[in-house]
């Protein structure tokens, strides 16, 4: 099962829940900015690192604008029973709408 949240919806959700925040950007992108508490596993490493991901629960998949995260979700859907949530607009939307002090690139 998958769904998507806007940046403000995710901010509100995080006040009530603690899902795994899976950032699938490259390490250099993650170093520029990321949502606090995120785990960085680049998209290309997901197949080899599946065992590091929860088999159930809730996982928010994050990238720069929401495209790579959608691809990762499509890959993960048959691999896990976790609820998969895409952050629409990625960290760029988070920086513009939630954390205006976050660097952008």
CATH class designation: Alpha Beta
Specify the oligomeric state: single chain
**Fraction in beta strands:** 15-25%
What is the fourth-level CATH superfamily?
A: Rhodanese-like domain
With helices defined by DSSP (H or I, 4 residues minimum), what is the helix count?
4
What is the number of E strands? 5
General shape: globular
Question: What order do the helices and strands come in, and which of them pair?
Answer:
Blueprint: E1 2-5, H1 7-14, E2 20-23, H2 27-32, E3 39-40, E4 58-62, H3 67-76, E5 83-87, H4 90-97
Parallel strand pairs: 1-5, 2-3, 2-4, 4-5
Describe the structure.
The structure is a single chain. The protein has 105 residues and is α/β, with parallel strands linked by helices. It has one domain: 3-Layer(aba) Sandwich (Oxidized Rhodanese, domain 1), CATH 3.40.250.10. The chain is 30% helix and 19% strand. It has helices spanning 7-14, 27-32, 67-76, 90-97; strands spanning 2-5, 20-23, 39-40, 58-62, 83-87. It has a five-stranded parallel β-sheet with strand order 1-5-4-2-3. The model has no long low-confidence stretch (mean pLDDT 96).
